[in-house]
Amino acid sequence: LFPGVRQAQWLTKTKLVEGLPPAVQGIMENPAHGLQELEERAKHAVSHARLWGTAEVAPRREQYCPVLFENLIHICRLMSGKYPSLSKRMLARNCRIAATWERESILLQVRGLSGILMNSMSPIPPVASKEEILATKEHVLETFYPIAPTIDLQEVNVYKELNDTGRCFGDGYPYSHPHTLFFLESANVRTDRFRPEQLRAKMLMFAFGNALAKAKALHGNDPKVLEQPVVVQSVGTDGQLFQFMVFQLNTTDLVSNDGVKNLVWVDSDQNLYEKAQCVPEVKKGVVTKPAGISGFQPDTFKKFLALYLHGTV
Question: What family does the database annotate (predicted)?
Fold first, then answer.
């Protein structure tokens, strides 16, 4: 999406709120959860991915980005000893999504691989109150006139209007609720990776697509304001810079700009660490910069962990 999140907002009839919602912030700030006790493990996770996990002098992004993700997920799973309901989760890879909706007079579809999808046996509760949802009626969506809001979308012939959560949510599948999408932008060449703004737009579109397909599976295809909104989270990273997102689908009535809007909370461009010095820098036989990780940001790790815990604690 060329204009990025602003275009995705129009396509999904969504109001953006800067920062993470209070429900997630509360998890981060509550000392009872003991998030700070895992900071040292998170530092080791970064060092393992960037410095120790390979025989190469400097690991490539396509290697260390997935390793870092797996390391962080492992740390999150350690919390299941304290919160047993966390064991009722499942990671699904290469899971396809298809969701179709009408916006003004345009038929739209989001379709493709959903990144790595964490499913849960129970849904994330709504993060916005009914009053906050009703207040979105006053929000005016940005337009791009004279540019069409679909300017850079691929135009195809649609023979079947699909709303399909893919093989991940077949009949009888116990982990039937989408919880968090993870997008790893691990291409080693910068031009092959999504820019942060593009990545956030992709995160929003696929969170919306998963929420819409789930809502239609639960409530049918008739456009309506949902009594029980559907919440889907997204996390995107290139192995250093993180994007965090919480999306709440309040309505499947998407044709007009009037009425209740959907909501998305976005926390952008959060570094987990500033620099990884893979080999020491030596000048005239003296080590001027030792190998190691510098500028570790514990709050970024806590946000990752808080989103994992969200819906359970």
Answer: Belongs to the mitochondrion-specific ribosomal protein mL37 family.
